[in-house]
Design goal:
Blueprint: H1 8-25, H2 27-48, H3 52-73, H4 80-85, H5 87-92, H6 98-125, H7 132-159, H8 166-193, H9 199-228
Helix pairs in contact: 1-6, 2-3, 2-6, 3-6, 3-7, 3-8, 6-7, 6-9, 7-8, 7-9, 8-9
Length: about 230
């Protein structure tokens, strides 16, 4: 008796849940990214002292840089495990769109590495004497910016798949593209600090997210096809 073919939506859901399940079995990888953000951001108040004005001035840049570096730590693991065990090759040679496969893996990466930073950042921001409005803008900027980091990072992860020293190559590829995200994200919080509107920075982050959602999965899916050939 012939098996009923798997629908595209069902396959996308399975890919997403598989990545979440596999990552949960390796909780140390997830926790290392999470705690890196907490520890790195918390070191600045300890090292610079308790000057509230200084901490308040550097808070947006420090928190955004720590979030960027935390997301980057997990980029090599976005496709690597499935590439090594052959799962990625089986997915690509199936009749399902590679674009959607890449998109689900990017979504899983953001849920595991980006979303926790969005949730914990306001608590870390309290150490820097940020106001409630600044904490809200910080969280919202990260909510727009961290998916962009995952989308852009997927290109670097796919292009360096199977290469030695892939982690270093990813950093060289994606860091220049990450800079605008960092500037607009930190700038949105800084705008609130000086009494201006954060709408400009948030709008630019939203525009970058929209562009990344269009071009990053396409580029990553093509690079994945090349990597498994």
């Amino acid at each position: 008796m012939n098996k009923r073919p798997i629908s595209t939506l069902s396959l996308m859901r399975r890919i997403f849940m598989r990545d979440i399940t596999v990552a949960w079995r390796r909780r140390s990888d997830i926790m290392s990214v999470f705690f890196f953000f907490i520890i790195a951001a918390s070191l600045f108040p300890l090292g610079l002292g308790a000057d509230p004005q200084l901490l308040h001035a550097i808070a947006p840049s420090v928190l955004w840089v720590c979030a960027l570096l935390s997301c980057m730590l997990s980029l090599p693991r976005m496709f690597e495990a499935d590439y090594v065990d052959g799962t990625l090759e089986q997915l690509i040679i199936s009749n399902q769109p590679t674009l959607l496969i890449a998109l689900m893996k990017i979504l899983a990466h953001w849920v595991l590495s980006g979303l926790p930073l969005v949730l914990i950042a306001p608590l870390i921001g309290l150490q820097f004497n940020l106001t409630n409005n600044e904490l809200q803008v910080l969280a919202f900027s990260l909510l727009l910016g961290t998916p962009t980091l995952s989308l852009i990072g997927s290109i670097g992860g796919a292009l360096t798949l199977g290469l030695r020293g892939g982690g270093v190559l990813i950093a060289l590829l994606v860091l220049p593209i990450y800079i605008p995200v960092l500037v607009f994200g930190a700038g949105a919080v800084n705008s609130i600090s000086i009494g201006m509107s954060a709408q400009g920075g948030l709008s630019l982050l939203g525009a970058m997210l929209a562009l990344a959602m269009i071009f990053a999965p396409l580029t990553a899916s093509y690079a994945l096809k090349v990597a498994v050939e």
